[in-house]
Every structure is written in structure tokens, then in C-alpha cells.
Predict the 3D structure of the following.
Amino acid sequence: NLSKMPLLEFVLEGFEGGPQTQALLFALFLALYVVAVLGNLTMIVVITVDARLHSPMYFFLKNLSFLDLCYSSVISPKALVNILSSSKVINFKGCATQFFFFSMMGTTEAFLLAVMAYDRFMAICSPLRYPISMCPLVCVRLMLTCYCGGCLHSLPQ
């Protein structure tokens, strides 16, 4: 009986076409991935190195770049491998792991965007209290809350 067989792997359907189409798609997706990685790494390095950018807004932007780097690195490498591979499968555990991290990064990013909006609200509406209310310790705690919230949201998925 087929219904009692365990699900071991998924077959990934991709773009149809010959080897030339596959090579073109691989080059296109690889270029997009490299641009995303280099752009996010550049943001992280510039914000880290330049002391003028050590404010809460840039702290959150640096973390957003890190999340975007992780977010794109969850799916893109496997997709690039599958474009060139003749065996387009992913096992169940690999799929579940990939979905967990994809969900975690996406949810964490959504929480971080809300924190960034709160940061701008505090800077605009309470400029005199802003340096105290958004001190480095508060920023780190808000960031950790974003990561914990993203992880907790993704666990039941």
C-alpha cells in the first residue's frame, strides 16, 4: 500500500529547456546571488568600520543586511546546484531544515523591520530621550528578541 510508505524525498521541478537554457539560468541566478552577497557584506563591513555609523539605526541596518545575507543563502545554493544537476531531489530532512531557516529568517526580518520603525519613531517623537531610550543594551535586547521571535515562530512550522 503506497499510503503507508514514508516520505523520503521530494523531486524539485525546475525550468525546462536544454543545456544552453540551464547554463543561462545558472549564470543569471549566480550573478544575482553574488551581487546580493557582496552588497550585504559591503554594508556590514562599512557600518562596522566607520565609527560615524555606530548609531542604533545603522546597528539595525547592519543586522538587516546580515539577515538578508542569510535569507538568500538558505535557498540559492541548493537552487543553483539543482539547475545544473541531473538529479533534482531534496530529502525530507533537508527540505524541513531549509524551510525552518527560510521561515526563521523571514520572520526575524519582519520583526526587525518593526523594531526599525520603532527606532525611527523614538528618534522623531522623543529626540531628547532617544539616546537613553535606545542605548546599545536596548538595541541588542531588541535584536535578540527579533531572533528569538523568528526562531519560536518557525519551530512549529
User: Anything to note?
Assistant: The chain is about 75% helix and 5% strand. The domain at 19-155 is CATH 1.20.1070.10 (Rhopdopsin 7-helix transmembrane proteins). Strands lie at 9-11, 89-91. The mean pLDDT is 90.
